[in-house]
Design a protein that fits this description.
The structure is a single chain. The chain has one domain: RlpA-like domain (Barwin-like endoglucanases), CATH 2.40.40. The protein is built from 2 helices and 6 strands. Strands 1-5-2-4-3-6 form a 6-stranded mixed β-barrel. It is globular and about 30 Å long. It is α/β, with parallel strands linked by helices.
């Protein structure tokens, strides 16, 4: 039942199927939050491939692709946010490095739910 509810909520957020893509703005967070508690209760580690999303369940794995250079990274949702209007996802510093987001600070991305 829990899995069914999770899949239904993911479908509502991303369209008609759990493999649909969403497009939006990504940013990142790092040193200022390193070592602090996340909304999931985990300690934030800027060197792990994690992210913050407002609605997706903790533990959801996502593929995030930088639309500027087509580089992608797989991350796990372990926090809530971003709380800046217009942004869809906050990546850890390590995840942002993988898709060359550090220099720009924000970029358009494609987000796909993997599981």
């Amino acid at each position: 039942m829990t899995i069914l509810l999770c899949l239904c909520s993911c479908c509502c957020l991303f369209g008609t199927s759990a493999t649909s893509a969403a497009y939006g703005i990504a940013s990142y967070y790092g040193a200022d939050f390193h070592g602090k508690k996340t909304a999931s209760g985990e300690t934030f580690d800027q060197w792990k491939l994690t992210c913050a999303h407002r609605d997706l369940p903790f533990g959801t794995r996502l593929r995030v692709t930088n639309l500027k250079n087509k580089k992608s990274v797989i991350v796990r949702v372990n926090d809530r946010g971003p709380w800046v209007a217009g942004r869809m996802i906050d990546l850890s510093y390590a995840a942002a490095q993988k898709i060359d987001l550090i220099k720009d600070g924000v970029t358009r991305v494609k987000i796909e739910i993997l599981r």
